Amino acid sequence: MSLTDAAAPTSEWQQGWYGPATHLATPNFGPRPAQAQVDLIVLHSISLPPGEYGGDQVQRLFTNQLDWQAHPYFKSIEGATVSAHFYIRRDGALWQFVSCDDRAWHAGVSSYRGRSNCNDDSIGIELEGLEGGLFTNQQYAALKQLCPAIMRQYPIAHIAGHEHVAVGRKTDPGSGFDWLRFQKDQSLNARYLPLNIQNNRLISGF
User: Fold this and answer.
1) 89-128: burial string, b at 16+ Cβ within 10 Å, e else
2) Which of 12, 78, 126, 131 is catalytic?
3) Is the alpha carbon torsion for 10, 19, 23, 50 positive or negative?
4) DSSP 6
5) In a domain, 31, yes or no
6) 144 CB-contact burial (10 Å; exposed 0-12 / middle 13-18 / buried 19+)
7) DSSP three-state, residue 116
8) Tally of structural domains, the chain
9) Is-catalytic flag, 78?
10) Is pLDDT of 5 > 90?
11) Range of the domain at 142
12) How many CB atoms lie within 10 A of CB 50?
């Protein structure tokens, strides 16, 4: 499988695929439950190896092509079959691996807004970065384009981090993600977010 093999459709959405993204289909997905309502966006961070940027290892992980012998860290995740709907590089480049009409494997054991198994009804966005580290202006700009496009297509009512849907198990995107900037960029009402924002700080409110 080529890592750049699919052409983007010309319209904004076609069968859950977002036109402006580079498309790279993965086998790591499944159907959503019949009555699932896609109303949650989950933000993540990822880099392979941790803290190293610019390679194609994340794309290879999501498409089961990662060489487990290429770095000592990879042995700790050997055999993982995971995916996300979207991946945003440090330079803002946007990739899509799974149709948003389908279920990607990004959240794992999770629970949010009174529902478990967040993969069933969420869209996962991975940001190239390290938990607790800062993200780039280009990534925030990409989110500013992508999230409203998702919200035009799906009945999104909640946006959370992986740390909020897998409390105690995951810590990404972490303290380096600027939720206040994200809210302002999106012109979002605070009701969409997992935390109340006061005086430029995040106050637990969920």
Assistant:
1) beebebbbbbbbeebbbbbeebebeebebbbbbbbbbbbb
2) 126
3) positive
4) B
5) no
6) middle
7) strand
8) 1
9) no
10) no
11) 37-204
12) 13
